Amino acid sequence: MTSKIEVIMAAYNNVRDMRLVFEGYLRQENKDFTICVTDDGSGPEVKALVDVYASLGLSIRYLWQEDEGYRRALALNRAIESSTAQYIVMTDNDCIPSRYFIEDYHQLLAENTMLFGRRVDLYEPASNLIRNHTISLDAMESPTWLLIQAMKKGLKRPEMGIRFPSFIFNLLNRKKRGAIGANLAVPRVALLAVNGFDADYEGYGMEETDLVWRLEQAGVIAKTVLSRCALFHLYHKEKAQSCKAMEMFKHKRECGRIECINGINRLSSNTSPLSKQGISGV
After folding, report:
1. Are residues 234 and 96 in contact, defined by beta-carbon separation less than 8 angstroms?
2. First to last CA, the chain
3. Which DSSP symbol is given to 61?
4. What contacts 226, CB < 8 A, 6 or more positions away?
């Protein structure tokens, strides 16, 4: 299935939260999208879950690579290279989309523009209310619930999950802000022009920062989206940024290269085992 939008979801185990994420995509108002789960070496449970939700109607394809450490950049490049969509939305398998997530992106995506979506960060107690089905995904999006949980210190940035009227939306998005991980939308042609992610980044952190910097240097316009395209990020212990990755980014930025060397065009010569399976929902 060819679609204007493909959601590329980096995955590594964590089927408990991924099930909730898929439930979020099942309830989208706009069904015109596909999903690519690009798996950085999980066991068979992730593929089994993908099969279940494909049978329930989601259009999903699944990529897998050997577990040789944290290689998110390589996994994402494989998904971008093999996609047929016009626009790529990159996220993670612990981020539940709002009901209007896809519809908002359909309305806002534009050529030569990358969009920085936002997310509501749920702390552990609020996350467990959702994981235990104490509250529904519909209730999770209620402005009242979001504000009450924020007052209880159950989450931060509740305003990112509230769909304000258009005039407030326009005011909120006048100012340019930086990217927040797990919610980035980019035209696929722009990603190919900079050769995708730099797979030199192995170990947690900086691969997305590096990509955004190179896209901006290539002339892609960056826009922030508040009050639309919202994700709800389920709690997990924070990972520490790799010092090596931060030093690498500093060096690469000083060199000023826009098209990375170890990117999408290296895939044909990469010898790491890769499993592909296309799955179409109803």
Report:
1. yes
2. 11
3. E
4. 118, 159, 160, 169, 172, 173, 177
Question: In this predicted model, what pLDDT tens digit does every residue of 130-185 receive, in sequence order?
Answer: 999 999 999 999 999 999 999 999 999 999 999 998 878 778 777 777 776 689 99
Looking up residue 224, the CATH number of its domain turns out to be 3.90.550.10
Contact 113, 216 (CB under 8 A): no
State the residue range of the domain holding 176. 5-122+157-260
Q: Give the total number of structural domains in the chain.
A: 1
Structural domain includes residue 165: yes
- pTM here? 0.91
Residues 6+ apart with CB under 8 A from 22: 49, 53, 58
In a domain, 129, yes or no: no
Query: Within a domain: residue 140?
Result: no
pLDDT in tens, 84-138: 999 999 999 999 999 999 999 999 999 999 999 999 999 999 999 999 999 999 9
